[in-house]
Amino acid sequence: MITGTLTYRVRMALPANATINVRLEDVSRADAPAAIIAETIFAAGGKQVPIPFQLTYSPGDIQARHRYQVRAQVRVEDKLLFVTTRAYPVLTNGAPAMVNMVLQPVSSGPSASTSGASGSAENVDSMPLLGTTWTLTELGGHAPVSTTADNPAQLVLDGNQNRYSGSSGCNRLTGTIELKGDSLNFGAGASTMMACPEPLMKQEQAFTKMLQSVTGYRISGKTLELLAGNKTVAKFKAAKPTP
Which of 103, 132, 146, 196 sits at 20 to 30 Å (Cα–Cα) from 22? Predict the structure, then answer.
Protein backbone atom coordinates (compact mmCIF):
# COMPACT_ATOMS: atom_id res chain seq x y z
CA MET A 1 0.00 0.00 0.00
CA ILE A 2 1.15 3.52 -0.84
CA THR A 3 0.07 6.20 1.63
CA GLY A 4 0.43 9.95 1.89
CA THR A 5 -1.37 13.27 1.77
CA LEU A 6 -2.56 15.74 -0.85
CA THR A 7 -2.53 19.48 -0.39
CA TYR A 8 -2.43 22.76 -2.32
CA ARG A 9 -1.20 26.22 -1.44
CA VAL A 10 -4.05 28.53 -2.38
CA ARG A 11 -6.79 30.09 -0.27
CA MET A 12 -9.74 27.98 -1.33
CA ALA A 13 -12.04 25.55 0.45
CA LEU A 14 -12.46 22.26 -1.37
CA PRO A 15 -16.08 21.80 -2.49
CA ALA A 16 -17.99 19.02 -0.73
CA ASN A 17 -18.63 17.21 -4.04
CA ALA A 18 -14.97 17.13 -5.08
CA THR A 19 -13.48 13.78 -6.12
CA ILE A 20 -9.82 12.83 -5.81
CA ASN A 21 -7.95 10.54 -8.18
CA VAL A 22 -4.57 9.02 -7.28
CA ARG A 23 -2.63 6.80 -9.71
CA LEU A 24 0.45 4.63 -9.53
CA GLU A 25 2.28 4.66 -12.87
CA ASP A 26 5.16 2.71 -14.38
CA VAL A 27 7.35 5.34 -16.11
CA SER A 28 10.28 3.08 -16.99
CA ARG A 29 9.99 3.55 -20.75
CA ALA A 30 10.79 7.03 -22.02
CA ASP A 31 9.44 6.14 -25.48
CA ALA A 32 6.00 5.02 -24.30
CA PRO A 33 3.10 6.45 -22.29
CA ALA A 34 3.13 5.72 -18.57
CA ALA A 35 1.34 2.48 -17.68
CA ILE A 36 -1.23 2.75 -14.89
CA ILE A 37 -0.52 0.05 -12.27
CA ALA A 38 -3.16 1.01 -9.70
CA GLU A 39 -5.73 3.76 -9.25
CA THR A 40 -8.11 4.97 -6.57
CA ILE A 41 -10.92 7.52 -6.84
CA PHE A 42 -12.66 8.74 -3.71
CA ALA A 43 -14.87 11.60 -2.57
CA ALA A 44 -13.41 14.40 -0.51
CA GLY A 45 -16.54 14.21 1.63
CA GLY A 46 -16.12 17.70 3.02
CA LYS A 47 -12.53 17.15 4.14
CA GLN A 48 -10.00 19.91 3.63
CA VAL A 49 -6.30 19.67 2.82
CA PRO A 50 -4.07 18.01 3.73
CA ILE A 51 -6.19 15.00 2.80
CA PRO A 52 -4.78 11.52 3.48
CA PHE A 53 -4.94 8.78 0.85
CA GLN A 54 -4.24 5.06 0.56
CA LEU A 55 -3.50 3.34 -2.75
CA THR A 56 -3.46 -0.46 -2.82
CA TYR A 57 -1.45 -2.27 -5.50
CA SER A 58 -0.48 -5.85 -6.32
CA PRO A 59 3.16 -6.66 -5.43
CA GLY A 60 3.28 -8.93 -8.48
CA ASP A 61 2.93 -5.86 -10.71
CA ILE A 62 6.09 -4.25 -9.36
CA GLN A 63 9.51 -4.97 -10.87
CA ALA A 64 12.61 -3.93 -8.96
CA ARG A 65 14.35 -2.46 -12.01
CA HIS A 66 11.38 -0.36 -13.11
CA ARG A 67 10.58 3.22 -12.07
CA TYR A 68 7.24 4.16 -10.53
CA GLN A 69 5.56 7.40 -9.56
CA VAL A 70 2.25 8.62 -8.17
CA ARG A 71 0.17 11.47 -9.55
CA ALA A 72 -3.08 13.00 -8.39
CA GLN A 73 -5.88 15.28 -9.51
CA VAL A 74 -8.97 16.85 -7.99
CA ARG A 75 -12.22 17.28 -9.93
CA VAL A 76 -15.65 18.71 -9.30
CA GLU A 77 -18.00 16.94 -11.73
CA ASP A 78 -16.26 17.37 -15.13
CA LYS A 79 -14.09 20.33 -14.10
CA LEU A 80 -10.45 19.71 -13.28
CA LEU A 81 -9.41 21.90 -10.34
CA PHE A 82 -5.97 20.71 -9.20
CA VAL A 83 -3.24 18.43 -10.56
CA THR A 84 0.26 17.37 -9.66
CA THR A 85 2.76 19.08 -11.95
CA ARG A 86 5.80 17.08 -10.85
CA ALA A 87 6.49 13.39 -10.44
CA TYR A 88 6.62 11.72 -7.01
CA PRO A 89 8.79 8.56 -7.27
CA VAL A 90 7.77 5.58 -5.12
CA LEU A 91 8.67 1.97 -4.28
CA THR A 92 11.86 1.23 -6.25
CA ASN A 93 15.36 2.68 -6.56
CA GLY A 94 15.27 3.80 -2.94
CA ALA A 95 11.97 5.72 -3.29
CA PRO A 96 9.50 5.61 -0.38
CA ALA A 97 5.99 4.15 -0.10
CA MET A 98 4.71 7.34 1.57
CA VAL A 99 4.51 10.68 -0.25
CA ASN A 100 3.08 14.10 0.50
CA MET A 101 1.97 15.62 -2.80
CA VAL A 102 1.45 19.32 -3.56
CA LEU A 103 -1.13 19.94 -6.29
CA GLN A 104 -1.34 23.04 -8.47
CA PRO A 105 -4.53 24.85 -9.57
CA VAL A 106 -5.64 24.41 -13.17
CA SER A 107 -6.23 27.67 -15.01
CA SER A 108 -9.82 26.74 -15.86
CA GLY A 109 -10.60 26.17 -12.19
CA PRO A 110 -11.87 28.73 -9.67
CA SER A 111 -9.73 31.77 -9.04
CA ALA A 112 -7.53 31.53 -6.00
CA SER A 113 -4.84 33.65 -4.40
CA THR A 114 -1.52 32.46 -3.11
CA SER A 115 -1.34 31.45 0.50
CA GLY A 116 1.32 33.35 2.41
CA ALA A 117 4.44 35.00 1.08
CA SER A 118 6.99 32.28 1.69
CA GLY A 119 9.63 32.01 -1.01
CA SER A 120 9.35 28.22 -0.84
CA ALA A 121 5.71 28.20 -1.96
CA GLU A 122 4.92 26.61 -5.31
CA ASN A 123 4.39 28.99 -8.22
CA VAL A 124 0.65 29.33 -8.84
CA ASP A 125 0.94 32.07 -11.49
CA SER A 126 1.90 29.72 -14.32
CA MET A 127 0.52 30.13 -17.82
CA PRO A 128 -2.22 27.67 -18.82
CA LEU A 129 -1.19 24.74 -20.98
CA LEU A 130 -4.22 25.09 -23.25
CA GLY A 131 -4.74 28.14 -25.43
CA THR A 132 -1.22 29.53 -24.96
CA THR A 133 1.16 29.94 -27.88
CA TRP A 134 4.32 28.11 -26.81
CA THR A 135 7.53 29.00 -28.68
CA LEU A 136 10.34 26.43 -28.76
CA THR A 137 13.47 27.41 -26.79
CA GLU A 138 15.20 24.03 -26.44
CA LEU A 139 14.96 20.71 -28.27
CA GLY A 140 16.89 17.70 -27.01
CA GLY A 141 19.09 19.96 -24.91
CA HIS A 142 19.97 22.28 -27.81
CA ALA A 143 18.74 25.70 -28.92
CA PRO A 144 16.42 25.63 -31.95
CA VAL A 145 17.53 26.60 -35.43
CA SER A 146 16.95 30.27 -36.21
CA THR A 147 13.82 30.82 -38.27
CA THR A 148 11.94 33.72 -39.80
CA ALA A 149 9.89 35.85 -37.44
CA ASP A 150 6.62 34.75 -39.05
CA ASN A 151 7.30 31.00 -38.72
CA PRO A 152 9.00 30.12 -35.43
CA ALA A 153 8.79 26.60 -34.01
CA GLN A 154 5.65 26.74 -31.89
CA LEU A 155 2.77 24.73 -30.42
CA VAL A 156 -0.78 25.61 -29.45
CA LEU A 157 -2.97 23.02 -27.68
CA ASP A 158 -6.75 23.18 -28.05
CA GLY A 159 -8.58 21.40 -25.23
CA ASN A 160 -12.03 21.85 -26.78
CA GLN A 161 -11.13 19.84 -29.88
CA ASN A 162 -8.30 17.77 -28.31
CA ARG A 163 -5.92 18.88 -31.03
CA TYR A 164 -2.62 20.68 -31.40
CA SER A 165 -1.32 22.96 -34.14
CA GLY A 166 1.93 24.75 -34.72
CA SER A 167 5.15 24.68 -36.69
CA SER A 168 8.48 22.91 -36.61
CA GLY A 169 10.10 26.08 -37.94
CA CYS A 170 9.65 24.68 -41.43
CA ASN A 171 6.26 23.06 -42.02
CA ARG A 172 2.95 23.62 -40.26
CA LEU A 173 1.85 20.74 -38.03
CA THR A 174 -1.48 19.55 -36.67
CA GLY A 175 -2.70 16.46 -34.85
CA THR A 176 -4.54 15.07 -31.86
CA ILE A 177 -3.71 15.21 -28.16
CA GLU A 178 -4.78 13.19 -25.14
CA LEU A 179 -4.66 15.12 -21.88
CA LYS A 180 -5.44 13.50 -18.51
CA GLY A 181 -4.32 15.53 -15.53
CA ASP A 182 -0.64 16.19 -16.12
CA SER A 183 -0.24 13.26 -18.50
CA LEU A 184 -0.01 14.35 -22.15
CA ASN A 185 0.27 12.36 -25.37
CA PHE A 186 0.49 13.60 -28.96
CA GLY A 187 -1.30 11.45 -31.53
CA ALA A 188 -0.67 10.99 -35.21
CA GLY A 189 -0.52 14.26 -37.10
CA ALA A 190 -0.24 15.85 -40.52
CA SER A 191 1.97 18.58 -41.93
CA THR A 192 2.52 20.71 -44.99
CA MET A 193 5.18 19.50 -47.40
CA MET A 194 7.37 22.55 -47.94
CA ALA A 195 11.10 22.02 -48.53
CA CYS A 196 13.41 23.95 -46.19
CA PRO A 197 17.16 24.29 -45.61
CA GLU A 198 18.81 21.13 -44.28
CA PRO A 199 19.16 22.37 -40.65
CA LEU A 200 15.43 23.07 -40.49
CA MET A 201 14.55 19.73 -42.05
CA LYS A 202 16.67 17.95 -39.42
CA GLN A 203 15.00 19.99 -36.70
CA GLU A 204 11.59 19.05 -38.07
CA GLN A 205 12.44 15.35 -37.88
CA ALA A 206 13.66 15.76 -34.29
CA PHE A 207 10.61 17.87 -33.39
CA THR A 208 8.06 15.34 -34.65
CA LYS A 209 9.97 12.45 -33.05
CA MET A 210 10.00 14.38 -29.76
CA LEU A 211 6.23 14.87 -29.85
CA GLN A 212 5.68 11.13 -30.20
CA SER A 213 7.82 10.49 -27.09
CA VAL A 214 5.96 12.87 -24.78
CA THR A 215 4.14 11.39 -21.79
CA GLY A 216 3.63 14.47 -19.63
CA TYR A 217 4.40 18.12 -19.04
CA ARG A 218 5.44 20.62 -16.41
CA ILE A 219 4.80 24.38 -16.32
CA SER A 220 6.69 26.91 -14.23
CA GLY A 221 5.72 30.52 -14.81
CA LYS A 222 6.01 31.09 -18.57
CA THR A 223 8.10 27.98 -19.25
CA LEU A 224 6.63 24.70 -20.51
CA GLU A 225 8.66 21.49 -20.36
CA LEU A 226 7.54 18.45 -22.33
CA LEU A 227 8.50 15.22 -20.59
CA ALA A 228 9.21 11.68 -21.70
CA GLY A 229 8.91 9.90 -18.38
CA ASN A 230 11.05 12.04 -16.07
CA LYS A 231 13.26 13.37 -18.88
CA THR A 232 12.77 16.84 -20.34
CA VAL A 233 12.78 16.51 -24.13
CA ALA A 234 11.80 20.07 -25.09
CA LYS A 235 11.26 23.49 -23.53
CA PHE A 236 8.97 26.29 -24.67
CA LYS A 237 8.27 29.87 -23.62
CA ALA A 238 4.80 31.40 -23.57
CA ALA A 239 4.44 33.89 -26.40
CA LYS A 240 0.84 35.05 -26.18
CA PRO A 241 -2.64 33.62 -25.59
CA THR A 242 -4.50 32.65 -28.72
CA PRO A 243 -7.72 34.59 -29.42
Answer: 132
